[in-house]
DNA sequence: TAATAATTTTACCGATTGGTAAAGATTGCA
DNA sequence: TGCAATCTTTACCAATCGGTAAAATTATTA
């Protein structure tokens, strides 16, 4: 522990700055090409430094990726954690959807980094998925089921509800290229976002059947 | 044209078999690692042949990928094409959802191949997205809007409706690892599929508000 | 300001990448 | 059966991959 303490000494100003630049560049590259498709040269290029210089701060490509994923997972589950068992069910779900949608808008690269990781078999996050994530979802699933039992919202499969919220919101980050191709580039990002938010609100609350018919 | 005709002569039995084996292997590898993350050696390995032998049938890595994407797009849009303007709106939408869900179940690698491509900026399918895909979606969006206008279903943004159908259904193929991690490996694929189908039916038709309340 | 620590550059390494040349083996057919 | 067309293997290539060694430079501090 003493020996380690010497290694864990305070970070230099330069170290601080360069690690940030590297992580920023790596997020850009990894989110675009996935782990195997990304190269250290690309990241170094995007960070505006030489490859050996980059490797002075992170000893391996894997180390950069690992840290990025770690930081990502820290924030990723927050919106779900915030879902309040004592709140108004429909309002809680609507809030959750909106928060997830905001994250897709504000952190699309993080979303794609995660999507790439899952899509390619999640070799580096499997334990988190089966541990932390699963526990949190189990917990919130119980809450949602209880809401249904109490007649505060429709009874439904809470797991698939959560999946469908993840899917619909993250879609706007992960499939951004497709969304833009279909809607046209000219529509502003904010307009798209507001339209999406309005639609998802409607879908998750009322569904699509003709109004007035029950 | 005459000169080309000579090249387009009938395929040998061996050629037929080997091209199939290669495409099958390539689908496996590309869908797992994306274009840049996949290597010819991996594909050749999976196809049980040497790299130069593989390159006898496909002259470049790109050519294999291109053909796979081409074949994929042929089938991918069929369910949407089949949506009948003269059918019962809600039933047509439910059918569309089910067909897409079946595709996610039966062709998960194709779904992931496409997802990888879009996620990584869609460099090889941009023209299809902005052309064929966009036109089809525009056409069906008009149909859905008309359904709303006639009071046969709720008025809603048809584009975001289509996005949300794509997102929710493809999620089960693209994020399979995550879905399994949360639901547990033990649940059979069929059970998962039926649960998902039932939930999506409920969501898209009735939404989540408590039944009886309008 | 001198010495020490931190940072950057230059030059490189072996392994792997996508792809080729050409000789050898196999196949189908007259 | 012979022979041309098809197929497969062996041996390679230049470029790029992730990563290292060590000298040269810059920043920090006693």
Contiguous helical run count of chain A: 12
Number of strands of chain A: 0
Largest sheet entry of chain A: none
The gyration radius over C-alpha positions of chain A equals 21 Å
Question: Which whole number gives the mean pLDDT of chain A?
Answer: 92
Derived structural class of chain A = mainly alpha
**Assembly classification:** homodimer
% residues in beta strands of chain A: under 5%
Order of helices and strands of chain A: HHHHHHHHHHHH
Level of helix content of chain A?
over 70%
Pair with the biggest interface: A-B, 64 and 64 residues
Shape of chain A: globular
Low-confidence parts of chain A, pLDDT < 50 over ≥5 residues?
Answer: 1-7
Q: N- to C-terminal separation of chain A?
A: 67 Å
TL;DR?
The structure is a homodimer of 214-residue chains. With 214 residues, the first copy, chain A, is mostly helical. Helices cover 76% and strands 0% of the residues of chain A.
Tell me what the structure shows:
Two copies of one chain form a homodimer. Chain A is mainly α. The longest helix of chain A is centred in the first third of the chain and has 25 residues, at 13-37. Helix content of chain A is 76%, strand content 0%. Residues 1-7 of chain A have low confidence and may be disordered. In chain A, helix 2 crosses helix 8, helix 7 (89-106) packs parallel to helix 10 (158-174) and helix 7 (89-106) packs antiparallel against helix 12. Chain A has helices at 2-7, 13-37, 40-47, 51-57, 61-76, 78-81, 89-106, 108-119, 126-149, 158-174, 176-183, 189-206. Chain A has twelve helices and no strands. The interface between A and B is large, with 64 and 64 residues. Chain A binds a DNA duplex (30 and 30 nucleotides) through residues 12-15, 18, 39-41, 49-53, 55-56, 59-61.
């Amino acid at each position: 522990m003493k020996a380690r303490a010497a290694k864990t000494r305070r970070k230099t100003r330069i170290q601080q700055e360069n690690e940030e630049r590297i992580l920023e560049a790596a997020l850009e590259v990894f989110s675009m090409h996935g782990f195997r498709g990304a190269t250290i040269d690309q990241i170094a290029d995007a960070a505006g430094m030489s490859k050996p210089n980059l490797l002075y701060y992170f000893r391996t490509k894997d180390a950069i990726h690992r840290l990025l994923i770690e930081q990502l997972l820290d924030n990723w589950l927050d919106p779900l954690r915030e879902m309040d068992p004592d709140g108004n069910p429909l309002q809680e779900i609507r809030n959750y959807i909106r928060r997830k949608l905001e994250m897709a808008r504000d952190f699309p690269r993080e979303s794609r980094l995660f999507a790439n990781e899952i899509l390619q078999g999640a070799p580096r996050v499997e334990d988190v998925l089966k541990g932390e994530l699963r526990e949190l979802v189990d917990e919130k699933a119980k809450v949602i089921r209880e809401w249904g039992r109490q007649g505060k919202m429709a009874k439904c499969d809470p797991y698939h509800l959560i999946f469908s919220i993840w899917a619909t919101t993250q879609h706007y980050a992960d499939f951004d290229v497709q969304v833009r191709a279909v809607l046209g580039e000219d529509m502003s990002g904010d307009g798209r976002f507001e339209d999406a938010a309005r639609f998802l609100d409607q879908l998750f609350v009322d569904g699509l059947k003709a109004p007035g018919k029950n």
